[in-house]
Amino acid sequence: MNRRRALWLSAGAAMVLLLSGHTPYGQWVVYRKKHLLIGCHKADPETYDLAKRVVALLEKHLPAAKSRVARAPDAGRLASLLGTAQMAVATLGAADAAAMLRGTGRFEAYGAIALRILTPVAGRLLVARADFPVRHAWLVTGALVGTDLAPAPKRPDDFGIPWHPGSLAFLEGRPEPVDG
Question: Which residues of the chain have pLDDT under 70?
Fold first, then answer.
């Protein structure tokens, strides 16, 4: 085979690969289905440390969740991930969570994001999307309540954010839900 033909074949193969739409995005979808991602962001460094502590507790009490920390560069990017269902759970300050819920202030561009409280943790909130499965919320809340991060099962209503039904079920002593 001459060089020119080999070059054309190589170029053709490269074009096929480029035009086939190969992207690592598909792997991100698979990864987030296999792992419970706990979101945080670099603009609030305390959320990163808190997310790592949440993951450590979940690894101990709910190893099947395969929890991992997912760190966004800022709260806006985290809002985008939550709003587009690329992430379901995050550690946030109460003010950021309330603003994301309403889609106000710096989160106006992302629109209102239906967030629900799973549990307060170490001065912040662990929140989830409203469509986070009820059973999963019950399990996560159960794994964290009574630990140093969430020592007492409290239901303060002054956050301005609704509680997740699964978390409420756990806090009210109801049995583990059977939904997925």
Answer: 1-33, 153-158, 180
